[in-house]
Amino acid sequence: MAERMFIEGxxxxxxxxxIAGCQAFFGYPITPQNEITEWFAREFPRAGRVFVQSxxxxxxxNMVYGAAAAGxxxxxSTSGPGWSLMQETMSHMANAELPCVVVDVQRGGPGGGxxxxxxxxxxxCTRGGGHGDYRNIVLAPASSQECCDLTQLAFYLADKYxxxxxxxxxxxxxxxxxxxxxxxxxxxxxxxxxxxxxxxAGHKDGRRRIVEHSSDLFGRDPDYVTLLRxxxxxxxxxxxxxxxxxxxxxxxxxLILVAFGYTARVAKEAVNLxxxxxxxxxxxxxxxxxxFPYEAIREKAHQGAQFLVVEDSLGQMVEDVRFAxxxxxxxxxxxxxxxxxxxxxxxxxxxxxxxxxxEMYAAQETKGYEPGR
Amino acid sequence: MVRPEVVINETECQGCGYCVxxxxxxxxxxxxxxxxxxxxxxxxxxxxxxxNTCGFCAMLCPRAAIEVYLSISQ
Amino acid sequence: xxxEGKAVIREMVAGRPKLLVPQTAAFVYCPGCHQPLVARAxxxxxxxxxxxxxxxxxxxxxxxxxxxxxxxxxxxxxxxxRPPDMATAIKHIYPDNLVFTVQGDGxxxxxxxxxxxxxxxxxxxxxxxxxxxxVYGTTGGQMAPTSLLGQRxxxxxxxxxxxxxxxxxxxAELIATFKGVVxxxxxxxxxxxxxxxxxxxxxxxxxxxxxxxxxSFVEVLSACxxxxxxxxxxxxxxxxxxxxxxxxxxxxxxxDRIE
Lengths: 373, 74, 259
Hints:
- The complex is a heterotrimer.
- Chain A has 13 helices and 15 strands.
- Chain A is an alpha/beta fold.
- Chain A has a seven-stranded mixed sheet, with helices on both faces.
- In chain A, helix 1 runs parallel beside helix 2 and helix 10 crosses helix 13.
- Chain B is mainly beta.
- Chain B has a single domain, classed as Alpha-Beta Plaits (2-Layer Sandwich).
- In chain B, 14% of the residues lie in helices and 38% in strands.
- In chain B, strand 2 and strand 3 form a beta hairpin.
- At the A-C interface, helix 3, helix 5 and strand 9 of A face strand 2, strand 3, helix 2 and helix 4 of C.
């Protein structure tokens, strides 16, 4: 049963979580995601679900740890500075193999930064963020509809892999109102949570369950390397099975833009403007920032394409694109320094992207560059 | 006839001395001649006739290595 | 020894509580450590209340974390200082379970100050148990919030000096001042009398939670012979002569109503 609503991305996350059966939300105020916390404060108690305003982001994420250990579908939401505070526990949850969903609605950084949009948390989310060897699955919505749909996907993937999943939004996607079809998506069955704690009486075999975050202290693994091997296999499985991206006007594209979140929408507009000038531009929009769509980009690099990364940071995702291109082609960047005005409200707009495309195209022409050679 | 027994698990005992200290009737002593496999000094139950099975030795043993039995024959 | 024709009944009158898991080579505590005595008190309290099947323990980092393997109940171990947060969440998910924490004094009062304040302010209906051994045990004996003035530790080699390191924190008294706290007590395990008192404090704390009244707290003065550089018997004396005068035993708050 679908319902159409005119809501902002932040709210759409709430609706997606509710449909996905999220049982508990723990949150702390921070701009620009207060609408998410307030949505849960309004909707969850009246739906008989758990909402607690914690005393800090450390509180939120550790409550998430506890509820996840109890086998509940649970999430929290924050922005950059709060996300930094959460890293120790993210690492612990990766070891304890606890499923959860964490939303980071990006704002400017580093430090306190402006409270408006940016895309500077890419590294922190996709490289693990906390200490030790682990990875988060990172989903990047580029619309309110995706905020709703990817939240449901996040809960599914979290349970499927017993791993944290991060939804990396930004202040523009979060506060932009669009029409959203709020409907349930069925992703299929997830493994049962027999490992969760709920008191011995709650287990069919009557035996106790332990959730812990070291390696070999309580007999979960015979030794440390066994644990690492298991985590490594999980990482590989996620990389092989969960890559998601959108291809826009890619059939014959030779100049490929790569962008996520709000800059992907700007990039799409720039692609359209270029096509109007007969430039064969296209866009690969990663939906999973981790696992990253290396293969899709590598394939195009082999076919001789050039790449233009558009991201609202000093350059983070561009490194993943360069890694995929393996030196076979040019990779340029339109960065946060190309915003239309220098204040915190500045954005990367299509005209700057188009100017870069034209520059790259002209250079292509001058060098007698032929794609596909 | 009533016979108390204080049974100390000899591989678990860590020789802390709490059982000896808290027996109100001095039924346990460390003779210095008996050791656990790890080398801790083992207490000996030397006065069964004084024991009233109060259970303090078992209660204060951090290893829960002590069991107190009461045998009654009719 | 049975005489011919007479029956002999041999009964165990004192021994390991059922909820205390038999330890083999995995036992990690130093000789004379009071951590396993607190585990015993918790096990006995749970057994008396019949709550072993509905208990969920959340254990801190440090020597308390090993209690995960000692009690035959569902257990969770998470980051340093965070048990009050984890316990809060678990209690919200399973309000009919008995959710309690066992932490050291550093785990609760130092790095755990944030979660502690949060749980106290929100009056979460959980039970917190804190072992006070006046040092950070697992890491080798550094100064802790409850270290005594003049006490030599590895980070206060000249003795704790209030000018640079402040004063010992009195958790039971502090926690008793919060409105949402219905029970706050301090016990010790340095003799059979105090052990039984402490076990009763823990049982009362659990009962407060079972009645859904509010947050309950028990602090237990615990010997740490290794880090105090003493024999177990001398560490009992240190509790009596040095710790109890600074940290008096007793119930600081015991109420059945929030007031």
